[in-house]
């Protein structure tokens, strides 16, 4: 490994893009992340019998029966019901909240996805534009102290999305799982005091969809709990047999699985109407049929437009409004540049009709003389993994290597150095 | 946040020449991890016609930097401004766009210019439109 650090293309840098929905992990230079791990960790008490050595504990306080925990990460482990397994999310408000669980995710990534030791690979992390200084420093500390990475860098995901679309100045609209945000980027730097956030994201949409489905009385039993089902006619009561489990699955697990079921419904059925919701116009659109894991099938018509409307019609938090507010908070001289480069990214923006509606809402709010141009990549990869792909390319640029914060710099200057190296 | 790609001396010389009215403009590109000169344009013909010529040399799938001395009249006074533009068509590859966009800042600083105009589609290449952008964001 001598002289490997700032060599040419055999760097083997890694790119981690943590989000609320999932953690994207992979190698730099590649087109897509190696893995997209759901951002929840299953925690269950570890009750495997331990083989104790014959030594007796002298101190009465030491307990040899202290509960140990087992952690379950990634889809295959999460979707199987286990006794007493509670699901926790380690993200909050776009930032990492629970560091212990996050470390488990990183351990899993190195172990199973990258399949290599952390000390051999420089690593690039993406962060949200409003990330707190304390959290950045904590992440730096963990990566250097625990994982002993040779080099580290932090980039704002909005800047990555702008660059990946060939722009150094853009208004990045990121619609993700927990929130939708409008972030102006000027010459590669995020204008932090003009960032506008709204909690209306994919999760809110799923919540509303779930309420509606339960209100209609649709059974949302997840696929993992169904042993077998029969084919039934449209709108007929479903006939299925539930799996017999010797235990009751935890509430958090049930909630997560039902959320996945509703998410499936959301992704295939929900559509945003081009103009503000009107019952009659919506009724004119063809209906879409959806089959639930229980075997129940139904057509959905105007409801699917009505549901999506929540993302746009809110006066203060609608997507069009926050975009206009954010641009309004910037200097009047750069607004034309921002409006002519509106970049749409984020998994939730893939809802059908989202980009057209946002384009329309924004143009009605743009001052007359300004030209509006929205860039919305067509593929799912570019929108869901936009920040990851940007990070992958950046980390693979040969000359970029000299901008990383190295282990040596960390040892000399400490974790505060990150603020100077990664503005 | 820059990418660290170095700018060749040749590119800097081209900038000096454009500044001193020796040349009208130049097309720069990233090659072998360096920003080099692709083509130079002299000032034998008018500002507008040389611009048309320059635009015809731009490829629709590759990103470039355009260094140009724009001549325009504003409030009936003739003005001239050297400006840098980033040509990053939406049809170019993500890697190309990423590299060019992240290196634009360094290039701008090296040349001591205040703004980089972004041009992302052929329709935005009209001379009068660009001149308007350049004129507005000048300081």
From TrEMBL, chain A:
<comment type="similarity">
    <text>Belongs to the actin family.</text>
</comment>
<protein>
    <recommendedName>
        <fullName>Actin-like protein 6B</fullName>
    </recommendedName>
</protein>
<dbReference type="InterPro" id="IPR043129">
    <property type="entry name" value="ATPase_NBD"/>
</dbReference>
<dbReference type="InterPro" id="IPR004000">
    <property type="entry name" value="Actin"/>
</dbReference>
<dbReference type="Pfam" id="PF00022">
    <property type="entry name" value="Actin"/>
</dbReference>
Automatic annotation (TrEMBL), chain B:
<dbReference type="InterPro" id="IPR029006">
    <property type="entry name" value="ADF-H/Gelsolin-like_dom_sf"/>
</dbReference>
<keyword id="KW-0009">Actin-binding</keyword>
<comment type="similarity">
    <text>Belongs to the actin-binding proteins ADF family.</text>
</comment>
<dbReference type="GO" id="GO:0003779">
    <property type="term" value="F:actin binding"/>
</dbReference>
<dbReference type="InterPro" id="IPR002108">
    <property type="entry name" value="ADF-H"/>
</dbReference>
<dbReference type="GO" id="GO:0030042">
    <property type="term" value="P:actin filament depolymerization"/>
</dbReference>
<dbReference type="Pfam" id="PF00241">
    <property type="entry name" value="Cofilin_ADF"/>
</dbReference>
<protein>
    <recommendedName>
        <fullName>ADF-H domain-containing protein</fullName>
    </recommendedName>
</protein>
<dbReference type="GO" id="GO:0015629">
    <property type="term" value="C:actin cytoskeleton"/>
</dbReference>
<dbReference type="InterPro" id="IPR017904">
    <property type="entry name" value="ADF/Cofilin"/>
</dbReference>
<feature type="domain" description="ADF-H">
    <location>
        <begin position="4"/>
        <end position="135"/>
    </location>
</feature>
